[in-house]
Amino acid sequence: MTVTLPDPAFAGREYPATQAYSVGREKVREFADAVGALHPAHHDIVVARGLGHPDLVAPPTFAVVIAQRAEAQYITDPAAGVDFSRVVHADERFTHHRPIVAGDELVTVLHVDSVVHRAGIAMVTTRCEISAVTADGHEPVSTVVSTLAVRGEGR
Amino acid sequence: MSDKPVLEQLAVGDVVGTRTLELDRPRLVRYAGASGDFNRIHWDEAFATGVGLPGVIAHGMLTMGSAVAVVEDWAGDPGAVVDYQTRFTRPVPVPADGTAAVEVTATIGAVDLEKRTARVDLTVVHDGAKVLGKAQALVRL
């Protein structure tokens, strides 16, 4: 089997904004339950509003749900050369410009920041800029940076 | 919920929370559904061993997402977590029966009185070894 590593020529690529993702209350509750996040601001609208949020607050890693959809544009492109069976998640970072809340309509612009080959392994770093659709345009909400390690031949 | 922490009263090295995560196969399946990450290595034993893993392993994002709950509870507001990052240093194998225990300890790593933030460092251990590296949550207080 010939193993190909991700194409370095994809570094620097920016994708068009995704369709809006609608953050639903039940999805926030479902995700919070799945990670054992019991804080009532994820579950109880009265508590969330009491803390000054407009609606249920998504857990800090909820943005992965949205980021993953955007990243699929790159990962599933055969030309990108990302063999998912050889992928290991190396690191992840969420920066919240404001919390994600139920009711948000979020669009994502995916960037491939780097594709680096080193000792038979490719490190691929993507960045998702997630913003809310508002009456005046777009409001920055979260930045999600993810690095995948892709093992090459004999690794 | 407990009272909100006061930045001026925090010192580097303070342990602000501990928790044991009990990860079992149903939890992995639940996380797969909630997150949309249906990679077979997280629920299909034959597939996982076929790609060289010791068996089914937990989603790194499940461990990351579960560990930070201790920080949210301490902060008193999940929206106070403004930045959260980690490296995935070691997989957590989850047996077909029973659970994999993951120990989480949250410690103050830095306090910034000007920016009104505390950095909480998470030590996340399974089977005597760290499974997350440089796991840090920045909390605005």
Kindly summarize this structure in a few lines.
The complex is a heterodimer of chains A (155) and B (141). By secondary structure, chain A is of the alpha+beta class. Helix content of chain A is 19%, strand content 35%.
Judging by the overall fold, what is the CATH architecture of chain A?
Roll
> How many angstroms separate the termini of chain A?
13 Å
The CATH topology of chain A turns out to be Thiol Ester Dehydrase, Chain A
Helix content of chain B: 10-25%
CATH architecture of the domain at 11-23 and 58-140 in chain B: Roll
Number of separate strands of chain B: 6
**Rg estimate of chain B, integer Å:** 16 Å
Q: What fraction of residues of chain A sit in β-strands?
A: 35-45%
Overall tally of structural domains of chain A: 1
Q: Please report which band the strand proportion of chain B falls in: under 5%, 5-15%, 15-25%, 25-35%, 35-45% or over 45%.
A: 35-45%
**Element-by-element helix/strand order of chain B:** EHHHHEEEEE
Count, helices of chain B: 4
Alpha-beta content class of chain B: alpha+beta
